[in-house]
């Protein structure tokens, strides 16, 4: 590392070109790239090349690297980093003797314990899943393992870095999502050290994050109303921006974590946080599926699934969002979903902005943002069909509205005709002496004449009170008499 730190731009370019790495960029970028090469990919050939370049330029001073000389004047930009393998006093950045300085730490490439990892050329890196509400602008610190320094359960891992002037301007010039919260942020992400697949954010036990001299708030636990179910914690990026120095000064971040056997990695990123409204606009721009493609999907589904539970000639789709029980405005679903039913993109994005789950409310399967599509055919149907809450797709791809059952069965002629015909044709139970049935028959006859009295009205009230105990035709008769008297 000391040799690499003493190289000039031409030496760094020669070294990076030797291993096939990019030679473009500023000096601090070349130094960072070369130090990463030393830490993770230092083969004998690479080490030989570094030694050759160093001896060519500093042949006479090669013995001074191991024993750094005290410095009379210190640069104002000097930095002291304390770790398990790098302890001592500060030295100037411009000095060749750089035993006590880790240059890439200025650019977010250092974390305590990193040097204890054995270098492996083919070791895969930890990757974090992409988050729809965060657009990554810069990677300040690649996911780096939290390595315990002792046998204590509570560990501390520091990270020291500085923002570049361009990054500071991006933060300062960004708009505010809410008072005091900028849209461009420096965030800390933590996950399991697992290289098999992209990892979701996961906090270690007893986590605490300190930025410079203040502790940063970390999302707490969701309370659980179910007995025996532990409360869950929403693990998401931790915004550090409001506690950082937005200048050339270095920032020190200390992660306190519980060492209970599981391995975690942390990364620092410069991101732009998006809102649900911005994601909705992006979805409307690039995520609309043409009505003809949706129509072809309907025909294909009915062809492949003719024995569905609903019908053999069509499939019903509700125009009501299953999330909020309101009429759809922007119908959408995931391309991976097997159903034609949609949910409202507006409410779906708002809900995931507050509590990200990205699960389809129809089939309870993953419905991530990058797989959402807006159903162009159903969007068109919503504008043409305003008086129905459900439609049916037919085998040829066409559709028809389905009215509510109450609207279809409530014709005024039907109950009146049933009343007259049932009474005349003797559909009601025959009178049995002077009991209730006899009264009922007499009431019907009297109602067809203009001779109603208060006594008959009282008898009708008694019949309605006993309606639950009488036969089914009796209840229908009471309802029908009400219709006739209203006429």
TrEMBL record:
<keyword id="KW-0832">Ubl conjugation</keyword>
<feature type="domain" description="SAP">
    <location>
        <begin position="4"/>
        <end position="38"/>
    </location>
</feature>
<dbReference type="Pfam" id="PF14324">
    <property type="entry name" value="PINIT"/>
</dbReference>
<keyword id="KW-0479">Metal-binding</keyword>
<feature type="region of interest" description="Disordered">
    <location>
        <begin position="427"/>
        <end position="487"/>
    </location>
</feature>
<dbReference type="InterPro" id="IPR013083">
    <property type="entry name" value="Znf_RING/FYVE/PHD"/>
</dbReference>
<keyword id="KW-0436">Ligase</keyword>
<keyword id="KW-0238">DNA-binding</keyword>
<keyword id="KW-0539">Nucleus</keyword>
<dbReference type="GO" id="GO:0016874">
    <property type="term" value="F:ligase activity"/>
</dbReference>
<keyword id="KW-0808">Transferase</keyword>
<dbReference type="InterPro" id="IPR003034">
    <property type="entry name" value="SAP_dom"/>
</dbReference>
<keyword id="KW-1017">Isopeptide bond</keyword>
<dbReference type="Pfam" id="PF02891">
    <property type="entry name" value="zf-MIZ"/>
</dbReference>
<dbReference type="InterPro" id="IPR023321">
    <property type="entry name" value="PINIT"/>
</dbReference>
<dbReference type="GO" id="GO:0003677">
    <property type="term" value="F:DNA binding"/>
</dbReference>
<keyword id="KW-0805">Transcription regulation</keyword>
<dbReference type="GO" id="GO:0000785">
    <property type="term" value="C:chromatin"/>
</dbReference>
<keyword id="KW-0804">Transcription</keyword>
<dbReference type="GO" id="GO:0016925">
    <property type="term" value="P:protein sumoylation"/>
</dbReference>
<dbReference type="InterPro" id="IPR038654">
    <property type="entry name" value="PINIT_sf"/>
</dbReference>
<dbReference type="InterPro" id="IPR036361">
    <property type="entry name" value="SAP_dom_sf"/>
</dbReference>
<comment type="pathway">
    <text>Protein modification; protein sumoylation.</text>
</comment>
<dbReference type="InterPro" id="IPR004181">
    <property type="entry name" value="Znf_MIZ"/>
</dbReference>
<keyword id="KW-0833">Ubl conjugation pathway</keyword>
<dbReference type="GO" id="GO:0061630">
    <property type="term" value="F:ubiquitin protein ligase activity"/>
</dbReference>
<protein>
    <recommendedName>
        <fullName>RING-type E3 ubiquitin transferase</fullName>
        <ecNumber>2.3.2.27</ecNumber>
    </recommendedName>
</protein>
<keyword id="KW-0862">Zinc</keyword>
<dbReference type="GO" id="GO:0003712">
    <property type="term" value="F:transcription coregulator activity"/>
</dbReference>
<feature type="domain" description="SP-RING-type">
    <location>
        <begin position="306"/>
        <end position="387"/>
    </location>
</feature>
<comment type="similarity">
    <text>Belongs to the PIAS family.</text>
</comment>
<feature type="compositionally biased region" description="Acidic residues">
    <location>
        <begin position="453"/>
        <end position="470"/>
    </location>
</feature>
<feature type="compositionally biased region" description="Polar residues">
    <location>
        <begin position="64"/>
        <end position="73"/>
    </location>
</feature>
<feature type="compositionally biased region" description="Polar residues">
    <location>
        <begin position="81"/>
        <end position="96"/>
    </location>
</feature>
<dbReference type="GO" id="GO:0061665">
    <property type="term" value="F:SUMO ligase activity"/>
</dbReference>
<feature type="region of interest" description="Disordered">
    <location>
        <begin position="61"/>
        <end position="96"/>
    </location>
</feature>
<dbReference type="GO" id="GO:0005634">
    <property type="term" value="C:nucleus"/>
</dbReference>
<dbReference type="GO" id="GO:0008270">
    <property type="term" value="F:zinc ion binding"/>
</dbReference>
<dbReference type="GO" id="GO:0006357">
    <property type="term" value="P:regulation of transcription by RNA polymerase II"/>
</dbReference>
<keyword id="KW-0863">Zinc-finger</keyword>
<feature type="domain" description="PINIT">
    <location>
        <begin position="112"/>
        <end position="274"/>
    </location>
</feature>
<dbReference type="Pfam" id="PF02037">
    <property type="entry name" value="SAP"/>
</dbReference>
